[in-house]
Structures are given as C-alpha cells and as structure tokens.
Amino acid sequence: MPYKKNKIACVILASGNSCRFGSKKSKLFYKVHGTPIIEITLKNLTKYLNKESIYITIPKKITKNESNLISKYTRNDLVSGGKTRFESLKNALNEIDFKKFEILMVHDAARPVVPKNIMMKLLMAISKNKYNCAVPASVVEDTLRKKNITLNRNEYMTYQTPQLFDLNYFIKNLKQIKFFPTDDLGVLEKSKNCKIKYIESSKENIKITKKDDIRILKNILNYKIKFSNGFDIHKLMKGGNLSLAGLKIKCDYHAIGHSDGDVVIHSVIDALLGAYSKGDIGKYFPALQKYKNISSMILLDEIKKKINFENSIVSNVDCTIICQKIRLEKYKKEIEKNISKLLKCNQSNVNIKAKTADNVGTIGKSKAIACWTTLKLISL
After folding, report:
1. Beta 163-166 vs 133-139: how paired, if at all?
2. 166 phi and psi, to 5 degrees?
3. Is pLDDT at 101 greater than 70 in this prediction?
C-alpha cells in the first residue's frame, strides 16, 4: 500500500540551542559543502513530503536570511520553539489542522541524511493501519554499565527519528501526559496495547550533536558525490549582444544557435545531465521550432525538474570559457554570481576562467566561442 504524501503532517524540530556543539551560532546553520545542515535535512525530506505538510520550529535568535532559507521548504508559517524539545513539538502541533492529516511524522533537523530504505519502511509500515507508530530503533551494541556493574545490553534500545504515528492516537495520548519525554515515542510509552513497528536504525542516520560529528557527516556525503562535465561551442557573428550564463554581455559579437546560443548554460545543462546519466541537451531540446531563440535559462529550469535538482547540493562548478577577442575579465564575478543563483549554491563554489585560443583554429579567429564545465554534485 503506497503512502499518501498529503495525509502526513511532518514536524521538523529545529529550535534547539546547540549547547554541545560548542558554537554561539546554531549548529543547523553550520555549512557542509557550502550548504547549511538544516537545508541538507530539508532537501532530503522533501523527496518524500509535500511542502504543505511540513511544519518547522525555529529558535528565537534567527536572522532574516536564515528564516528565508528555511521558509523555501514549507508552505506554512515557521513555528517558534519552546524551552524544551517537547514544548517545541506542542507548539508545532497547535499549528496543524488535524482534520487534514492522518499521520504525524516528527524529525530532528539535526539528522540530515535519513537513508531511503529506512524512510520507505517507516512510511509503508504506518500506512498499513496495523500499527499506532513506526520508529527506527536498535539494540545497544556497546558494553553498558551502571556504577561499574555490567548490564544486559540486550534489554536496552536506542531510538532515532523520524518517528511516525497515527495522528489521532498520538494527540489522544498527548493530552494525558504529565512529564517531558525526550523523544516522541515517549508520549506513548505508558499507553497500554500500543502497537509499535520497529525498523532497524542506521549509523548513517547520524544526529549532529558535536563538531566531531561534522567529519562523519562529510564522509557519508562523500559517498553521494558525483563528478561530471559538459561542453558546448557556437559560431560567432558580429553585432548584437552575447548571451552568457543568462546575462547579456555587451560586445561586438553574438552567438549563432537554435536557442540563444548561451554556451555556459548549455555546458552546465550537459554537466547536470551527465551527473544523473540522463543523456545530453539535444535529447530534450532538439532543433524544433518551439525552441527557436528560447532563453537557455528556461531550458535549465526544465532540466532541473527532470533530475529533481531540488534534492541536490552543488559543491563546485568550474567553467572555462574560450574565446579570442571578447574580453570577459570584468564580467567574471557577475557570471559567477548568476551561476550561483541559477544552481542555488554559494558564489564561492563557482569558478570562472576565461581563455583565448592564441589565434589558433576557429575560436582563435573569433568565429566561435566555447565553454567547458566541470561539476561536483551531491545527490541526496
């Protein structure tokens, strides 16, 4: 039985104080591969959920830019967190229209890389209506002692998020609770006849608590890195403006192409398609009349939809533009800025090189312009 996205209300708890992280700033905005941890979490979760279903709690001290970043991943207002995790959860529940949803998902924003197999098992288990909740859990693996006395570790389990619940069942028990649980299953732990489906948890589903955890997260993400390249070349003619990286460059030449002849965006498109083994630009945009003189930015937007670009992190973009007489030095930063905007990455992750062809060949005679793009991308 497939799960129904529109029936799940997901609370993402992002309002902790990060005291064990050893930083004045929230750990959730610590950048890994140029991307804040909270954004990695949200990119991962939006593979499975609608933005209308997502409710995010935030700390009191948050900047406008941080708030705007988080807001891109939800259609709902951000929720002010409480003094404790449990209070933050209750604040979020107060914003949810229970009539719209059947399932509650609660997730710690500090767990950015929930493995797909765990997420799918949890969603399928709770969708069968056989269980009141589904949670990732594992028996303790390490030796466990209390006051220097070894305990039977088989009697103890550790738990992770996301945790999923029958929404009505959860709310009913929430009204009766008289203590502050440290996780969401704690709301139900004293409930008689509660049917729990345990899904084996994973070390990959790491919770970022201390700065040392960042190194582990980077190692996990490194397994998801893809490298690719793209190349494009167009003839040049005198007159007009040159389309480059979505910009109009004032010069004595313009590129000849079926579209606007933007060699930078075309090479970026081919690099993106290469990262996902999806062919090349000609496969999706052949020389048909409907694509005549079309903006390459429109083509890029279409390709981003086809590869689910929203669930990716662009870690590095390196473009080498090759032309003879068109001087691009003063446009490099502007090109970098626009590419970072188009690919939703930091400008520091983009590098632009402009080369001549030393008067050799078609490019050297200013009859053509070319671009070679190398891309480093993380697919979540």
Report:
1. antiparallel
2. -65, 120
3. yes
Which DSSP string corresponds to 140-186? --S--EETTEE--GGG-EEE-S-EEEEHHHHHHHHTT--S--SSSGG
Q: Residue 156 and residue 144: Cα distance in Å, rounded?
A: 9
For residue 138, list its beta bridge partners. 158
Predicted confidence (pLDDT) per residue in 259-286, tens digit: 999 999 999 999 999 999 999 999 999 9
Q: Which domains does the chain have, with CATH numbers?
A: 5-220 (3.90.550.10), 225-379 (3.30.1330.50)
Contacts of 16 (CB under 8 A, 6+ apart): 26, 28, 59, 81, 85, 110
What are the structure tokens assigned to 248, written together? 């109009």
- Asked whether 255 and 234 are in contact (CB, 8 A), the reply is yes
Q: How many CB atoms lie within 10 A of CB 374?
A: 16
Helices assigned H by DSSP within the chain: 37-45, 64-71, 85-93, 116-127, 167-174, 212-222, 263-275, 281-284, 296-306, 332-342, 361-364
Q: How far is CA 219 from CA 19, 47, 180, 276, 378, in A?
A: 24, 22, 34, 21, 12
Residues 73/143, Cβ–Cβ less than 8 Å: no
Could you write out the three-class secondary structure of 252-278? CEEEECCCCCCHHHHHHHHHHHHHCCC
Contact 121, 199 (CB under 8 A): yes
Q: Residue 348: its pLDDT value, please? A: 93
CA 128, chain centre distance (Å): 28
- Running DSSP on this structure, what letter comes out for residue 115? -
Tell me how far apart the alpha carbons of residues 292 and 212 are, in angstroms, rounded to a whole number. Answer: 53
C-alpha 318 chain-centroid distance: 21
Instruction: Compute the distance between CA of residue 177 and CA of residue 188 in angstroms, rounded to an integer.
Output: 9
pLDDT at 1 over 70: no
CB 317 within 8 A of CB 343: yes
